[in-house]
Amino acid sequence: MTKEILHQHLQELHTHLIDELLPFWTTRTIDEVNGGFVTHFDQYGNDSGEDEKSLIAQTRSIYTYASAHRAGYGGGALAELARHGVDYLIGTMWDEEYGGFYWMTNRRGEVTNDQKIVYGQSFAIYCLSEYTLATGDLRGIKYARTVFDLLQKYATDTTHGGYFEMFLRDWTLKGPGSAGGDRKTLDAHMHLMEAFTTLYECTRQSIHRRKLLEVIDLLTKKIMHPVYGTGIPQFWTDWQVAPQIKFDVIWGWDRFTNDGVKRAAEDNTSYGHNVEFAWLLLHALTILEIPHEVYHDQLRKSFAHAVDHGVDWKFGGVFVEGSHAGEVYDREKEFWQQAEVLIGFLDAYRIFGDERYWQAYENVHRFVLDKLVNHSVGEWWPLTTRQGDPIWTHMSHSWKINYHTVRSMVQSIQRLDALRVISR
Amino acid sequence: MTKEILHQHLQELHTHLIDELLPFWTTRTIDEVNGGFVTHFDQYGNDSGEDEKSLIAQTRSIYTYASAHRAGYGGGALAELARHGVDYLIGTMWDEEYGGFYWMTNRRGEVTNDQKIVYGQSFAIYCLSEYTLATGDLRGIKYARTVFDLLQKYATDTTHGGYFEMFLRDWTLKGPGSAGGDRKTLDAHMHLMEAFTTLYECTRQSIHRRKLLEVIDLLTKKIMHPVYGTGIPQFWTDWQVAPQIKFDVIWGWDRFTNDGVKRAAEDNTSYGHNVEFAWLLLHALTILEIPHEVYHDQLRKSFAHAVDHGVDWKFGGVFVEGSHAGEVYDREKEFWQQAEVLIGFLDAYRIFGDERYWQAYENVHRFVLDKLVNHSVGEWWPLTTRQGDPIWTHMSHSWKINYHTVRSMVQSIQRLDALRVISR
């Protein structure tokens, strides 16, 4: 890797972010009538009309605009956009009676699903902390802290540790099975780590630090595979591995068979998730001021599994998922996994100095810019064939939105920039 | 056991409670000058002058007076006494800045130890819930709920489950070793079960029910011995058994060697504690409306260990402690263990119908009334030789106080009364 190559990659990302990605959103997402954001767009970038505002999409949008503003983009306009989102989030999605944010409203702001889902609450903490860090508006951190307190009171399992995920409006734990009340997941805990990191960055309170350290302990000691260091998606309450099922309240767009079961439900791991976990852990350690060497074994395993088994050296990008030992199950390409491995492979290259991480980065970088970006409108195709032909074609819906794509560009640019300084 | 014998025992307890025990306290404990209670008395019942008001002694006093009032004693005077204690507890021992109750003040109400000790907070929840149940004064349950929320936020270990115990004023976890920050104990968890039971009895809130069920799960699955069903005093954070040590902030009057270590620090269990645990569990199940049959195996083991190994059939009473398998280490007699097994043996007799529990009850009953009660002043000797001669002679100090003795009389009378109805 030469300075020229580095510069060229940096330029490509910068151009995509400034000329394509951010304009896609700033020109169409504000709901001037009802407040908050419109988050459903088809392949042409037209409003596809779904009558919903999800907690995930609203909070991820706030994160996107606040973090891009904090990174120096938008000249103030993105901070205003974030503020517009926070007004809706606090004003319309907050439950004044029981506390916490509702899961779903329609576009007019009427609550259509009043459940309290930890995944969504974690994004509220994440975006509201980021928002205060970016703008100084203290409303953000006030609500972030309140949600943190609610999770400690209602969501923790004081028998086995960790957090339950699925609650009714009044924070009563939901039932077993697809209701989700008898399971714990990698997803929720990883996003709590992400959220508590930014919460702690904003408050520097010792309780936020301690709970961040505790969730890191859980992830590294119980949730990641003891041999392979890869993520295990679902557990029973007592941390025995549970077969991966689809929940009634979904937050992602994972593919399941028609009966809601994964093909290899008990030996399944996602390449992009593992790399996302590893770079989020690295970031947490930076904020905590803990040397990353303490977690080298975990980091190495999570990064290496994706490079060794997940990268498609023939057609580019990373596959969807496979076994912990290495067999690939699903060779299609999901947008968010590409977004996360861009950041993660650059981190891996920085801390391990191994050229194959740069090659993996380059590979995915090319796949993203040549295949995944729908350049005519500016956002990314959500799912493609192994070769890069779109399978799903929406530019956004309640779960896709812009957190992965914009964060990937902002964070990758920062990392390429840092590498450029070092390589001078 | 005949109706006459039952009646005779009932009368003896009633006479002791009404004529000796309650008057001991009502005539001397009120601090009219500074508020709260004086809780240090020598063997003659004279104020022994120690300049301290401990969270334990103040909260246990409130519990004693409130619960005795709820049980029908005192004609209103005990409720007034409880109110006097609550005024001091809330007015002087509450930390307005960080929340929670301070560990120690002097008699004038100046804070001398501002640490937040979970053991003490659990007694605050217990007594304040009991106080509201007894008097209807909602200040009690308001503070009880707030302390519950603080414990969920600051004291839980979200990695391994359970509660840490030792915190600085601002709820920063204390360090390892004798500071206690790296250990978990049977004591704290058992008293949290006791506290959450009365909290739930008062509020009937589902979160209080759930956290009570979780702590019961912890106790029965991790804290009680997997084979013997007996209590293991101390654990490391990850629930590995830890050698029993003396903490810097002590709450009891346990005997240790001069270096603060127990003789059999890793194979040690207390007969009275096990029986106290079992009857508190039974009581929790009653409040939860869960049939006690669900926990029969646990209950049987905890009760049977004390009867099989702890009862001194020669000199009366129960010994201090021994191994889980049965060997007795310490044949002296502690007051609180006698108090707790009276209640527990009556419960065991009721649910198992086994005559040996009655015999054990009778044995301890006689030992208490013939040896342990200092009839000339009305309270119990804290520690005697195996034969029943006093070793320690104070009638009260910060850790002894009246919760064990008065509760034992109130609860045993209720149980004897219920047996009398059945035996008619």
UniProtKB/TrEMBL annotation, chains A, B:
GO terms assigned for molecular function: isomerase activity
Xref: PANTHER family: N-ACYLGLUCOSAMINE-2-EPIMERASE
Species in which this protein is naturally found: Spirosoma agri
Family the entry assigns: Belongs to the N-acylglucosamine 2-epimerase family.
Protein name: N-acylglucosamine 2-epimerase
A Pfam family it matches: GlcNAc_2-epim
Example of a GO biological process term: carbohydrate metabolic process
Keyword terms, alphabetized: Isomerase
